[in-house]
Amino acid sequence: NRHTRELSTPAQSLSPQSTPFHSVPSVRRLVSEVRVRYHNDPATATGGDEHLLSRIAANTDLPKGKSEFSSIHVVGPPIGLSAIAEKILQSLEIGNTNRIRKEFHVHRLPECCSTGGAMDEYRAIFSVASRLILSKADRASLVVFVGWEDARFDFYAAVIGMLPFRGLSTALITQRSEYGDLLHYTSPSSVFEIEGSNPARMGMFPIKAVFGRLHDKTLVQAIDEWEPVNISKFVDHPDQRTHPTINLPFKIGALTLPMLTHNGNYQS
User: Fold this and answer.
1) 103-108 and 71-76: which strand pairing?
2) Sign (positive or negative) of CA dihedral 92, 93, 96, 102
3) CA dihedral defined by 191, 197, 200, 203, rounded to 10 degrees?
4) Among 137, 81, 78, CA closest to 111
5) For strand 33-40 and strand 103-108, is the pairing parallel, antiparallel, or unpaired?
6) Which long-range contacts (CB under 8 A, 24 or more apart) does 120-123 make?
7) Phi and psi at residue 71, in whole multiples of 5°?
């Protein structure tokens, strides 16, 4: 009828390279560095005290959008491996009972964690990570890793903290006598490696704070340049019988992730 108006929008022709997908944000808008703060806490050298957990909670970054930690999960060495670590575990538990009063769980690494074998390391990592999930750890949980005299095993703090939900806020209590590289960890077997500057991690490094006997220090490292695998030789390959592939556009955090899908019938 005459009271009805037709609204029309002129068709817009967009070239394949002018869509929002192909607009790469400025590097300044993305995470360009990863950092971790080492906090001097002399009590960690002798077994901690009742206030240790309060200091850790106050100096470890909260997850985005959270005003407090929902629960606390402490990961420690096998029973009897370190007297200092056992005292620290007791101090943390007393601190939670008397002061923090959060849901509190202690998870022990299995004895196989220190054999130096890659498969034993794998079993140790996933046994603890599984128990974190079964204990209802969530994105707002705090993981506290209690290291012992052999600082090589601080590696477990990084890899276990990295796994659930793409990473939980993790605090490392270390007995190391030198700072070392607190943004790079290699397992004693040398098979597993966690590197904070790896661009695939996009700055999501799980260890947010380190506590030990050394002086305060902040370690900062630039994130490496993202270099995706070159798949150009497989895209629109002239021999589609041998290479029946199609390139799928896919990005995470403005990083182009090469992805190919293969066409063909199920039987082949």
Assistant:
1) parallel
2) positive
3) 130
4) 78
5) unpaired
6) 121/187, 121/188, 121/189, 121/191, 121/192, 122/192
7) -160, 165
Nearest by Cα to 97 from 72, 77, 68: 72
What's the rounded Cα separation, in Å, for the pair 45 and 212? 7
Cβ neighbours of residue 80 closer than 8 Å, sequence gap 6 or more: 86
Per-residue model confidence as pLDDT tens for the chain (268 residues): 444 444 444 445 555 556 666 665 555 446 789 999 999 999 999 999 999 999 999 999 998 899 999 999 999 999 999 999 999 999 999 999 999 999 999 999 999 999 999 999 999 999 999 999 999 999 999 999 999 999 999 999 999 999 988 789 999 999 999 999 999 999 999 999 999 999 888 888 999 999 999 999 999 999 888 887 777 777 777 777 776 777 777 777 667 777 877 766 666 5
Coil, strand, or helix at residue 126?
Answer: helix
CA 215 to chain centre: 25
Please, are residues 205 and 196 in contact by the beta-carbon 8 Å criterion?
yes
